[in-house]
Amino acid sequence: MAIDLRKVEPLGSKSVLLEQAMRRQRDSGAHKANTNRFHDIDMSDMITPDFQWLNEDKTAIEGLVKQMDASIGLLANQIRDVEAKSRRSALTMEKEQQLLFKQIRTLNGLLKKQIDIFGSVERQMSTIEMKQIILFRKSA
Fold first, then answer.
1. Hey, where are the domains in the chain?
2. SS3 of the chain
């Protein structure tokens, strides 16, 4: 007789799985005539499943989750620190850039004034030179 093991959860030993499969088959009513035969099976020799490994795995997973939570918390703090430093440096850069632009405008203004003064001095020298040439010709 074939036992359908597709609906049995594999968390126990083979004997527990077999027992579950037999119960499900008995409960399904597929073999009502054989029901008395399953009650005659001696279950005293069944090995009780050892789920200690499951508890150990659960404890290990909980430990890993705690470590991950701590790491994520530390990472979040570091990210917040980096973002705060980034904002401060961006503000500092912006202030320095504004100061630099003011200095450039001031230098451009000074250079323009110097060019205007040199142009004025050159025109005055040209005018004086022309006057000297005219006076020199008149006197000659």
1. 1-53
2. CCCCCCCCCCCCCHHHHHHHHHHHHHHHCCCHHHHHHHHCCCCCCCCCCCCHHHHHHHHHHHHHHHHHHHHHHHHHHHHHHHHHHHHHHHHHHHHHHHHHHHHHHHHHHHHHHHHHHHHHHHHHHHHHHHHHHHHHHHHC
**pTM for the whole thing?**
0.42
- Residues 69-88 have pLDDT tens digits of 999 999 999 999 999 999 99
Q: Which residue, among 15, 70, 75, has the nearest Cα to 46 in the 3D structure?
A: 15
Q: How far apart are CA 56 and CA 67, in angstroms?
A: 16
User: Which tokens sit at 21?
Assistant: 């499969």
Enter the tokens of residue 86: 């980034």
